[in-house]
Amino acid sequence: LTAMGEARMDPNPSLPDSTAQQDSLFSMTDVFLISLITGLCTYWFFFRKKKEEVPDLPKMQTVAAPQRDSSFIEKMKKTGRNIVVFYGSQTGTAEEFANRLSKDAHRYGLRGMAADPEEYDLSDLSRLSEIDKSLAVFCMATYGEGDPTDNAQDFYDWLQEADTDLSGLRFAVFGLGNKTYEHFNAMGKYVDKRLEELGGQRIFELGLGDDDGNLEEDFITWREQFWPAVCEHFGVEATGEESSIRQYELVVHTDVNMNKVYTGEMGRLKSYENQKPPFDAKNPFLAKVTENRKLNEGGERHLMHLELDISNSKIRYESGDHVAVYPANDSSLVNQIGEILGTDLDTVMSLNNLDEESNKKHPFPCPTSYRTALTYYLDITNPPRTNVLYELAQYATDTGEQERLRKMASSAAEGKALYLSWVVEARRNILAILQDMPSLRPPIDHLCELLPRLQARYYSIASSSKVHPNSIHICAVTVEYETKTGRMNKGVATNWLKNKVPEQNGSSSLVPMYVRKSQFRLPFKPSTPVIMIGPGTGVAPFMGFIQERAWLKQQGKEVGETVLYYGCRHEREDYVYREELARFQREGVLTQLNVAFSRDQAEKVYVQHLLKKNKENIWKLVNEGMAHIYVCGDARNMARDVQNTFYEIVSEFGGMSQAQAVDYVKKLMTKGRYSLDVWS
To answer: Which one Pfam family would you cite for this protein (predicted)?
Structure first.
């Protein structure tokens, strides 16, 4: 543009000089101007062309990235697949279900593939009809308060904006949710509804799995009706009974460079030795534990406060966010599995996918040792699902044990009941099953193939980045209980964190972690009142909220009423952060501190009872003060009881019917004035 401006301005200075001689030199001037303009235009034309070519260079560099990788259609055509099973998975269960469905397909003369929607262009769904007998299945988990999982966020965004014609698409959806949450299976319901709106043909009804009940049974029940519907739709039949098909082959490395062996990293090899931001689920930051203290003064439980140093990590967080930590399994459990299977756990191996076209080359980072896999990569403490039992059954040499395993993996009512009582309710993990079935001794590599991945654990951050920019605080309680078989089961992450001591003798305790953003946020205006309800470790995010309100007050900001409802069992045993909360109250930051001690008297008192006691004040804050309400903790009982209490308060003081009160609270949620951070 500068060159153009200069070209247009150049002739002008010569015009006044030429005016006096216009008559005598007109033809000369004319020729001169035409030549000059022609020359300048030619110069500008080539200059402009050169200018336009510059942005094309980076585009040419991106050609190297293969476009076909983002097309699942091309991949299906290339590999002869006709069923694609997409999964939206936060903890690995939906991915596991997707893999099981894709493996099922071969029994009906079909070929399936499990696919991560994050890796593909989902607008290609409109082209799926190009493949004969094609079907898209969606195993979609709902995360948090009706949100999509991280890997399904782009798919969800696309669905909301899409106006694509999906009339040639045949689909089915299985949702994974939890009935204790407000928005039960919101993602599964939305995908099912939206695909139909875009013209897709539903070939089997939406499945709604409930993790508060028996998710495994819900899935099996849906699956056993789903496949007959597929057979009827496509006119195919089952080719025979289920058979065990290995997905990975074992390669043992006898002579391997140990620098090429994974030792617990989640993504990049040696990423724990050579840390590079940004840090996320595939590239966690190794944070030093700078503090680990017991919060409670008595009782059987162990409540703890940990502080993780995030200096120089470039990690940013806000009050209300979650910190994810990758734990390690108890070494004694790992050793016992190795002993019972007669395996050298330090053997270095790889499990390589037999499907060379698969994006997933290994079930976990390889090459690695069995010890590392069982310690950092595999879930060995949760009761295994029925597909694992079915695959393992072939290795039981005792016919009674083999039949028992097959029965538990079947869809028969008797088998489901046996699985529920013997595995789920008895909380038998894989080690317990191996111990209780002496003839069951599977090859360790097949066991490693079958076990699900060990997942990160999420904790509400108990600090404010305004006050602690280089530190993330965690408040947690160790999980430990006796099972029906008399075994002592321990929570993986909390017991691992419990043993993370701050720096001693020059050695540091490290925690692989990353931050997950949350919608659990303080109001934009500091003057807005807040009502926080968080019994037990549910107080964690409110420690961050209160710290932030104190900081805002120090900055001279007008801070609204800050009200906390906290609860614990006994005042003298498990009243956490007592001194800190008392100090915030003295300083006038915490304007109300209401504590329910549930077991210090004959009749139990919970936070909802204190809410009822102060109902007039609550209504005034909500109705007149436009207060924001926050609830954190147990979803199954506490969150529901608190919500019912708000219905009662709104109904009584707002002069509304029960239905109107429910609608009022729902609208508060929609407006972001009633937020939940709950777990079950």
So the answer is: Flavodoxin_1
Predicted structure pTM score: 0.86
pLDDT average, residue stretch 442-462: 97
Q: Is 499 helix (H, G, I), strand (E, B) or coil?
A: coil
Helix axes 399-408 and 386-393, enclosed angle (nearest 10): 150
Look at residue 70 in the predicted model and tell me its pLDDT: 76
- Indicate the SS3 state at residue 251: strand
Q: What are phi and psi of 90, to 5 degrees?
A: -105, -35
H/E/C letters for each residue in 400-419?
Answer: HHHHHHHHHCCCCHHHHHHH
460 is catalytic: yes
Q: Which of 422, 496, 619, 679 is catalytic?
A: 679
Of these residues, 366, 448, 568, 632, which one is catalytic?
632
Sheet holding 303-309, edge to edge: 457-460, 322-325, 510-516, 285-294, 303-309, 471-477
Distance CA 560, CA 122 (A): 46
Residue 533 Cα to chain centre, angstroms:
24
Structure confidence at residue 2 (pLDDT): 33
Q: Which domains does the chain have, with CATH numbers?
A: 72-234 (3.40.50.360), 278-327+456-518 (2.40.30.10), 329-454 (1.20.990.10), 530-678 (3.40.50.80)
Rounded Cα distance, 540 and 534, in Å: 8
Is the pLDDT score of 175 beyond 90?
yes
Residues 6+ apart with CB under 8 A from 384: 423, 429, 430, 433, 450, 451
* Rounded mean pLDDT, 502-507: 81
Please report how many Cα atoms fall inside a 13 Å half-sphere around the Cα of residue 177, on the Cβ side: 23
DSSP, res 140: E
Contact 211, 177 (CB under 8 A): yes
DSSP class per residue in 578-644: HHHHHHHHHTTSS-EEEEEETTSSSS---HHHHHHHTHHHHHHHHHTS--EEEEEEEIIIIIHHHHH
The pLDDT of residue 21 is 37
Q: Which of 89, 102, 126, 460 is catalytic?
A: 460
Q: What is the pLDDT of residue 12?
A: 36
Return the pLDDT at 33.
54
pLDDT at 425: 96
Query: How far apart (Å, rounded) are the C-alpha atoms in residues 177 and 184?
Result: 6
SS3 content of the chain, % helix, strand, coil (to 5): 45, 20, 40
368-369 β-sheet, strand order: 248-252, 348-353, 368-369
Candidate from 32-41, 123-132, 167-176, 474-483 with smallest mean pLDDT: 32-41
Q: Give Cα separations from 390 to 93, 111, 342, 405, 658 (angstroms).
A: 17, 21, 22, 6, 49
Q: 3-class SS at 202?
A: strand
CA 422/CA 484 separation, integer angstroms: 10
Residue 369 annotated in active site: no
Residue 679 among the catalytic residues:
yes
**Both tokens of residue 611?**
């809410």
